[in-house]
Write a structure and sequence with these properties.
mainly alpha
């Protein structure tokens, strides 16, 4: 996979040889950081199904879902934020209570 990445990068350089500014930017800003985002390196790390890069992005996405559209005044945004956090806490507490109420069984199979 890493070899394919190198081949494709070489192909990109050949294709855009006349755009030196673009190639310089890609090399200095992206290629040197390739281990942080390119599949040959990121596929070696377990992520357990999570594709969000930070908690803030996840929270931002959920909040945008609560807003429904982009035409809100500040008071409405504050009220929706309060409603969302209240709902989240209620769901979280229910989930914790459910987990606490589960009875675990230790099976001894002989």
């Amino acid at each position: 996979m890493e070899q394919e990445f190198k081949e494709r990068y070489a192909s990109l350089q050949e294709k855009y040889v006349h755009q030196s500014t673009l190639l310089t930017y890609i090399h200095e800003e992206k290629y040197l950081k390739r281990q942080q985002f390119a599949k040959p390196w990121t596929s070696q790390v377990r992520y357990f199904g999570h594709t969000v890069t930070s908690r803030a992005e996840s929270g931002h996405s959920k909040f945008k879902g609560w807003l429904l559209h982009s035409c809100h005044d500040l008071l409405d945004v504050k009220d929706r934020w309060a409603l969302m956090t209240r709902s989240f806490l209620t769901d979280y507490r229910k989930e914790l209570a459910t987990e606490r109420d589960r009875i675990t069984h230790k099976l001894q199979v002989t």
